[in-house]
Amino acid sequence: MSESVIERELAARLAAIDWLTRQRAAGVEYWTHADLSLFTFDGTRIPLMDRQRGIRKPAGFDAALAIRTVFRPEGAMRPYEDGMGADGLLRYRWRGSDPNHPENRALRKAMERQVPIIWFEGFAPALYTAIAPVYLLAEEPERQQFVVALGEDQLVLDVGGEVNSRRKRYVETMTKRRLHQPLFRAGVMHAYETRCAICAFRHGNLLDAAHITPDSTEDGVPATSNGLALCKIHHGAYDANIMGIRPDLVIEVRPDILEEIDGPMLKHGIQALHGEKLMMVPRSRRERPDEVRLEARYQQFRTAPV
């Protein structure tokens, strides 16, 4: 390919990543195949996802633009089982077993050029969140897979080599966070219809996916049932133990806060919610807040020092 064509392809993929980033900044957390077909570059429509294939190389491109991992219900296997290596980096499987399959060649070209690509992760049937930019750092032909760097800083990491346990733990933690955070947030926002569970505020760019069991603990799994969609005010109040949520989904406000006198935010946004039930609860029982987790977190609220 000529230098100008390569430069145009790079400009198009950077524009695609920017398009997703701007949507996310506006509160969009997930996309359907139809949503991802709307991207245009220089007046040309370039769908970012292939309906049938997991590896997307648009017409006229020399290297893969995006990869996809489909939604996996609990206990089920993905068609392509991706995982983490001993070095703490993620892997993405070839298409089939033929190294010369056109889609595998497209991935190899993206690796050789070190161009950024998009990883679409399915968190529900036909719904995807995006991790971008990611890079293909190396290929492991004997295992029929590519090594994935989740961000530019992972490009300098050693692949497959011996790493000490502290460094490995750090890389694994960083990798899991970058993989799980967008999946967790997308799942929570979808379950709560992009509304605060406490007050139903609906501006996605001012909502957080809050953990019931903190993600800093071993039990703080990135599951929707361990999450609550909360506006930033109520997320802060929940984390600060100003507000608690009982297992029956009733809100409690700390007694000393109920006695405070302040402005309308405290009166209407905090105190008035004491004894009220959550305004938003997921329709799916599987996605509703786990009662055991809520009880444990509620007891922390009850016993927290004032």
List its traits.
alpha+beta, PUA domain-like, 2 domains, 12 strands, elongated, endonuclease activity
Could you write a compact summary of the structure shown?
The protein is of the alpha+beta class. The protein contains eight helices and twelve strands. The protein folds into two domains: 3-186, PUA domain-like (Roll), CATH 2.30.280; 193-303, no CATH class.
Assembly type: single chain
Instruction: Tell me the fraction of residues in β-strands, as a range.
Output: 15-25%
Count, helices: 8
- Counted beta strands: 12
- Helix-strand topology string: HHEEEEEHEEEHEEHEEHHH
Mean pLDDT: 91
CATH topology of the largest domain: PUA domain-like
Largest sheet: 6 strands, mixed
Tally of separate domains: 2
Apparent shape? elongated
Q: Strand order, main sheet: write it out.
A: 3-4-6-7-8-5
Tell me which CATH architecture of the largest domain applies here: Roll
Radius of gyration over C-alpha positions, nearest whole angstrom: 22 Å
> Distance N terminus to C terminus?
66 Å
* Unreliable residue stretches: none
Based on secondary structure, the structural category is alpha+beta
CATH class membership of the largest domain: Mainly Beta
Q: Determine the fraction of residues in helical runs and give it as a percent range.
A: 25-40%
